[in-house]
Amino acid sequence: MSRWLTWEAPISGAPPNSEPTKPAKPSFDGFDGSPLEQIQKMGPGREMARASLARVGVRFLSIDGAAVAGVWSDRDGPEVRDALRGLGAGSLPVVYLDGPGVPFRWKGRAVPGDPVPVDVLAAMEAEPKEPWRVRDEMLAARRWRPESVESLRLAQRSRRSAKLSG
């Protein structure tokens, strides 16, 4: 299992063996406690959703004490948001890993592609509903566009097929 799926934020300031305080209201539209614990308990589609998110480098983080889904700006899209919902994490705020609000330790990238230019990232953050549409329009106007998730899959399959046949 990937380390990012089992990571839990350290609790600071709480004495050992003390009972946690009761939250004032449930967080994440009804999740009480760690959203990662809830994700672990989800139904059979969770493995496929986890795999989809892992392929595009999504990470679950705690930033300033709040759980968020970290997504690379060039990898965000409807399939990422669908996979987050499939894990029961669709209500988590999405932050861009290449954005300024993400600590440097989370900026290591292991997926192909290039983060979008800073002005495009700012425009994406200003459009929370479907930021990938803003990204795609701005990059198309510049004649530069990151590879889509689907084209990456096709390229990987093509390379595997070439290795097996040759």
Question: Can you describe this structure?
Answer:
- It is built from seven helices and three strands, in the order αααββαβααα.
- With 166 residues, the protein is mainly α.
- The chain has one domain (3-10, 23-165).
- Helix 5 (118-125) runs antiparallel to helix 6 (131-141).
- The chain is globular and about 50 Å long.
Number of helices: 7
The percent of residues in helical segments reads: 25-40%
Q: Describe the main β-sheet briefly.
A: 3 strands, mixed
Structural class: mainly alpha
* Rg over alpha carbons: 18 Å
Indicate the mean pLDDT.
Answer: 77
Q: If strands are numbered along the chain, what order do they take across the biggest sheet?
A: 1-2-3
- Globally, the shape reads globular
Key words describing this protein structure:
166 residues; mainly alpha; 7 helices
